[in-house]
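Hey,
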Amino acid sequence: MAAAWPFNTVRKSLPSRRNLLALCLTVPLTLLVGKLPGRGGVLRRPPAPPEAGCRRVYRLGAVSYRQEEEWPAVGGCVAPLLTPALLRRCVEQRARRRRRPTSLLVLGDSRMRLLYQRLAEELGAPTPPETTKPDGSWQRHIHWTNSPERWCQLCPWNCCPRAAAAAGVALRFEWRPFWTEAMVSELEAAAVSCERGHRDCPDLVLVNGALWYQLLSPRLEMAELMRQQVSRAAPALARLASLTRLVWKLDEETINDIVTDVHRSGPAEVPTLHAVVYDAARKIPGLVIWSSALPESTGFTRIKCQPLKQFVRSGVLNEATFHHECGQDVVHGSVAVMTKAVQMMFTDLCARDLDFTTLEEETQNMSVMPPFCCSTQMDT
C-alpha cells in the first residue's frame, strides 16, 4: 500500500469524469455564446485600432511653415492647401466609406473653442450666433474646482458646450481648462462609446491644457497641480488612445508686444509645462503630441508679425489684414493660424479619402505643389 500512495494522490487530484464532461461542454459553449461561466461578463470583440492616417503631420519639424521659404527635408509632412470645398469632400467621402459621419470632439479652453469654431466654419457646419457679451467681472470667480455648469454660468459666451453638424461630419466642444474629474469623465464617456461601437464614437479627440495653470497663482503650486491631475487622468487617456485618435495640442507662449506694443512676453512657464505632457505621453502608447503647430503660432508671430505691425503703424497695411494674419489679442491665435491647424488635422484624417497627388489643379495661389507625406503610404 505504501508503494501505491503517490498514484492514489495523483488520481485524487485529477478531475472526475463528470467534471471533465462538464469542462468539455463548457468550453465550446463559451466560444459560441460568448459567456464566461460564473462571471456574467460577455466576451466582446476587441475594438478596432484607430484608422490609419498621416500622424507625422503633428510632429515638430515635419511640416512647412509660412515663415519658411524652403520645404522640410524628405520624409516630412507638408499639409496641402485644403480649401473648404476639399474638406467637405473629404468628410463626405469618409462618411460614405464608413457609413457614419466623421465625429470630432474638442476638449479644452478658449483656444480649443476657437479652433472648434474654425473647424465648423471651414467644414460649413452652421453654428448659432453668440447672444451674450463678455463680462469682465466673471474673472473674479475663476477657480480650478469650478464644475462645467458653474463655468457655463460664469461665462456663457465662452465656457458652455457647443455642437455643430454638416454633411458627413459632427463637431462637439466641451469647456475643460483643467484636468479635473470633469475632463476624465469626458474621456471615459468617449471610450465607452467607442468600445460599444456607437456611431458617436469620436474619430479624433483633441485636448489641451497648460495655459490656465499659469494664469492662476501661485504658479509653482499650479504647475504641481497639473502634474498630479494629469497623472490621475492617465488611465482614461490610455484607454481612449487605444480606441481612437487622441491628440494633445501643446500650448504656445503668449507674445504681448506684437499686438499691445508692450515689450514683454506672457507666462514663460507655459512651455515648461510641456514636460508634464511628454512625461504622460511616455507612459501612454497611442497618445499623439501635437508640437508642429508651435512654430506656426510663435515663429510666424516673431518673424512676420513684427514687420507687419510696422506697416500698420505707417498706414500701409490695414488693421483687418493684420488681425487675420496675427490675431486680435495675445492669447488666441489668428484666423490664418487656426486655418493652418485645421489643414494639419485633415492631412491626417483625409489620407485615405483624398488623393493628395492630384490636388494641384484644385488648389489656388500655389505654383508648385510639393510632395505630401501621405501620398504613397500611411502611418498607423
